[in-house]
Amino acid sequence: MAERNSEQQHELHLRGSSDAGGIGKYLMHRAKPHLPPWLGVAGSGLAGALGHLRWADSAGAGVGLTLASVALTGTTWWVARSTSAQRRLHSAITVAAGSAWVTAACLAGPTTGPIDDLFLMGGPGLALSWNVRIVMRRNPDAAGEGSDSGLLEKVGLAKAKIGTAKVEPNRVTAPIALEPGEQTNEDVAKSLARIASALDLPTSAVRYLPDAGSARRGELVVVPEDMLEEVVEWPGPSNAGGSIADPLVIGRYDDGAPLQLWLPGDPGANRNSTHVLIAGGTGSGKGDTALNLLTEILSRKDVIVWLSDPKAFQDFAPLRPGLDWGVEGGTDTEVLVEAVKAAIPARTRWLGDHGYRQWVPGCAQVQNSTKHTCREDGRACGCAGMPFLVAWMEEAANTLRALGDDAFTGIAQEARSAGIALVVSLQRPSYDQMSTSTRASLPSVIALGCDPRDEGFSLPDEVLAAGAHPGAWGNRRPGYCYVVSPGIDESRYPSPGRTWRFTARAVPVMEMLATWTQRNGAGADPITAQAASGVAGRLYTGRTAPEGEQAVTATAEEDEMAGGMLVDPEDTDIDPDAELPGSQPGDDAPLFGQETGHKPSPEEARRLFADALAQFEAEGRMVVGPKDFTDWCDRNNLSRPWVSARLKEAAVEGRLEPTNTTGRWRIVPALTAA
């Protein structure tokens, strides 16, 4: 019964009562917050009347009351230093006026002269001023006294104003207007750590996005819950069989949105093509990030990948069959870099001849359109399509040490116009490893955890100022990263994301993906293949066929060999019945302290040198230098200076071309030279 009565009373309270008692209760409830100032006025009047009865004729009381009034006013001013300037001044004026009136009333009497008039007019005025302040504080649109304003006061931005916040799932965005002439966007950026402390959140959860058109306006973004703590395994390709022009999804942001980027440009979206830098310290998850990006690339139908991995494909082994060209570092990487350089002008010329200003998905199709034809009569040319090319340099610090810090500068500056994206992965992209020109030509970056001192090498200053701090993670949160790339909303730049985790369960799926790419992925177009073969010779073979097809080919070759001569090709012209040759001019007699053997004549030495170049070419060693001829010189009693001179002569004859590395030469395949 009691519970029922309680429920009925609660219902009447919600609906409101129409009797006199209900109206009185409602008015009292609404009036309670406004009563303290009026109680203070009444208390002051009572204190003045009682004080006059006791201290009317006391000179000492006058001195004491005056000192107490001054001390109380000063204390109020000091205590209110942590509040806003308006509240501090209002409080001090109220206390000073009240204590002065009480002092005068105690000494002269509350009804003497104008003292009673001041009480009747000033008391209600002060009380009403506090009532107005209470009403304004409860107005959600009022600025200066809300909880958000109080937060800004704590961090030294008391004069800033916060507009209406936009609340999204796990994301709050609030516009901020700073005090004109006194505060700038840099002040907010410097206060982000204190704001995070006041909200009891990690530093990476608070960001500031300045307005590009104003130095004092921007948006404060707060992500209260870190959705990246849970490790999520790689779910497989996001768009198998799609185009490389579609977004590549490599993880998710801290608010659950997909973490994605684009490689080719899009004229319709006004997005430029890009190169990518993957940077992160040891244990930061750089390997998983690379796998996320590479699996997305290989799952697309109109792209080929050339990849250099000095780690002998430790992470990428299951995906290697899907690559169009994979090398393990050293001289082979030198050749791959030179091949990319040679492919740039060839691909750019093809795009220009077919009326493309940049690579688009239509470039990968057979050119059956009259809008994109290389024929002078305007008819469709039917040329084979040109897929997008990704040149991937894994553990690039190794390659940069071998080839020089500007090994990729030319590629980074010129390849985008040729439908080529350069991906460079290394731990520390500092300027003593990579030239400033190369770094400036890599518009996109995936910045994982690093040493705090290395943040500036990975991310632009404005992104760091907005709240991005990969140095706060180090190697404690593998896969956490910031992504800066064309096509991504700039407000996302300081938002942390996390890539998918690759485990042993992902290996069979990666192997299936590589097999799918072998059978369904794009192959190198004739222009790109010819440019690569013109540099690499037999070292470039293109993507291999699946195992079944390889086995058939091998069997055919074995059948052909079975019916041939069981001798080495170089010995096929030797007559086994012929007499051995006698001594030849130049044969050295064995003398004490001298080497013995045959020293070739100048003409024979040049012939041997040409044969050596042909042998290097047959072995796929397309970049050579004097050190590569060390054993050859010992066998033929020739010196390294003689070899250096022959290398220069071969370059003049067109058999060699210089590379970026001093003393290293690229062999021009014999057919190309001819």
From TrEMBL:
PROSITE patterns: FTSK. CDD domains: TrwB_TraG_TraD_VirD4. NCBIfam families: plasmid_TraB. Residues 566-601 are annotated as: Disordered. Residues 568-578 have a biased composition (Acidic residues). Signal peptide: none annotated. The chain crosses the membrane at residues 35-53, 59-80, 92-111. Residues 256-457 form the FtsK domain. ATP binds at G280, G281, T282, G283, S284, G285, K286, G287. This is Sporulation protein SsgA. Keywords: ATP-binding, Membrane, Nucleotide-binding, Transmembrane, Transmembrane helix.
